[in-house]
Design brief:
With 429 residues, the protein is an alpha+beta fold. The protein contains 14 helices and 20 strands. An eight-stranded antiparallel sheet has the order 13-12-9-10-11-14-18-16, sandwiched between helices.
């Protein structure tokens, strides 16, 4: 039997378990802060290194390929996507290139790329954007392109540092927020994401969706369209799939994503594309050549029976058949995120009872008694989530919302028990 040998860049231990279960032999390169001892038992070898540092990574992967003979490379984690593309290019492995991964990572580069397309349909997927370096640049962008507009980092994630600017009087406060964010030293994944360049881009009105897709040698198949709960800021409060959409709108979203992925040059593997259904049609917010975060992949697996994480490693070696049409859902699924008042966690209540319910996929809490909860400034500041199923999307959403009122946290500084429900919101970029 032909041996399947893979290099995995960063990511979750679950990815490694699934690769091993498929009979794939792999080498892992992982950051020291993310290493899990179980990985050493599953892998042929583990390289502990900052895989975002090419001077370190290049000689290591060259030696590992010579020693272990891997023929493909994969990453499911945001900071590993560009390094995986660079490794593929350098070793001639034929995976998604560094150029494509970088276009998807760098939001300004994506906007410039779409704006330069010879196709008017592709250009219509985007909005005007410009890199900005201070208050004057913000007011100049507003004067040229109008208000509101969105200010955000070019290459961060988790809605970090994303703000809406509604008028020139807000420019100074918005830029002060940029400087404060750059000065923070407590950011999760701070070793991977440097808060540097910022862009301003036109605000896209309309409801927000994300699209989970998988590309099979250039054929893009939309697996699911996910609707968002986005209450008034930029932090996502929940997701539900399949989205409750008019069939005409859903088809327009499907076509837009396929057109977008073609324009970006992605041909294989998973993509998570965020967009808004504007009055003039779907317009892209951003996209990534990976599965979506926030455990959308678990919702997808529950509703459609698709283990996207497994597909990412399996498709590398043709271990799954290529789809030719969209899958049909078996039922619906939804998640709502948990938040808490700032303070010290004293107790978490209701999680075990909720988890025992038949229509609950999982109840995840990311804090323990004694942990400190700060203000909700980005997706990483949320303190957990509930994931549920339902006969349809409306039922799943109702169940998830009901459970966020039952799962509670007690923090110091809050009067009594504070519900772990979404009390802050997100509109979208």
């Amino acid at each position: 039997m032909t041996e399947h040998k893979l290099l995995v860049v960063g990511g979750r231990i679950q990815t490694l378990r699934k690769a091993a279960a498929l009979g794939i032999r792999f080498v892992l390169i992982q950051h020291k802060d993310q290493f899990v001892p179980e990985a050493a038992r599953l892998a042929e070898a583990v390289l502990i290194a900052d895989y975002t540092d090419w001077d370190v990574t290049r000689p290591l992967v060259e030696a590992a390929q010579q020693a272990y003979g891997f023929t493909r490379v994969a990453s499911i984690t945001e900071p590993g996507l560009v390094p995986a593309g660079r490794i593929s290019d350098h070793l001639g492995l034929g995976n998604t290139s560094e150029e494509v991964a970088e276009l998807l990572r760098d939001k300004h580069a994506m906007r410039r790329h779409l704006a330069a397309s010879p196709s008017a349909e592709v250009r219509a997927l985007s909005v005007a954007a410009a890199e900005v370096d201070g208050v004057e640049a913000l007011t100049a962008f507003g004067a040229e392109h109008g208000y509101p507009f969105v200010l955000k980092p070019t290459d961060a994630t988790a809605s970090l540092g994303v703000v809406r600017v509604d008028g020139p009087e807000q420019a100074a406060v918005a830029w002060a927020g940029v400087e404060a964010l750059r000065a923070r030293t407590d950011l999760q994944w701070g070793a991977f994401f440097t808060i540097g360049r910022f862009i301003a881009e036109q605000y896209i009105p309309g409801p927000e969706y994300s699209v989970e897709s998988f590309s099979f040698a250039g054929r893009h198949i939309v697996l699911a369209v996910t609707e968002k709960l986005t209450g008034g800021g930029f932090i996502e409060l929940g997701h539900a799939l399949p989205a409750r959409l008019d069939p005409v709108d859903e088809r327009s979203i499907e076509e837009a994503v396929s057109r977008f992925l073609d324009a970006m040059g992605l041909t294989d593997g998973a993509a998570h594309t965020e967009l808004r259904l504007s009055p003039t049609g779907p317009q892209i917010i951003e996209s990534h050549n990976r599965m979506g975060g926030d455990r959308i992949f678990d919702l997808l697996n529950s509703a459609y029976g698709i283990d996207l994480e497994e597909w990412i490693v399996a498709w590398q070696f043709g271990l799954i058949p290529a789809l030719t049409e969209r899958p049909a859902p078996r039922h619906a699924a939804a998640t709502r995120f948990l938040s808490a008042e700032p303070g010290t966690v004293v107790e978490i209540q209701g999680a075990d009872e909720a988890l025992a319910l038949a229509d609950v996929i999982d109840v995840e809490t990311t804090v323990r008694p004694g942990d400190t909860v700060g203000e909700l400034r980005g997706n990483w500041d949320r303190v957990g989530q509930v994931l549920v199923t339902g006969t349809d999307t409306e039922a799943a959403v109702a169940t998830a919302e009901r459970l966020t009122e039952k799962v509670t946290v007690v923090t110091t500084g809050a009067p009594g028990t504070t519900p772990l429900h979404a009390s802050h919101g997100k509109t979208a970029s």
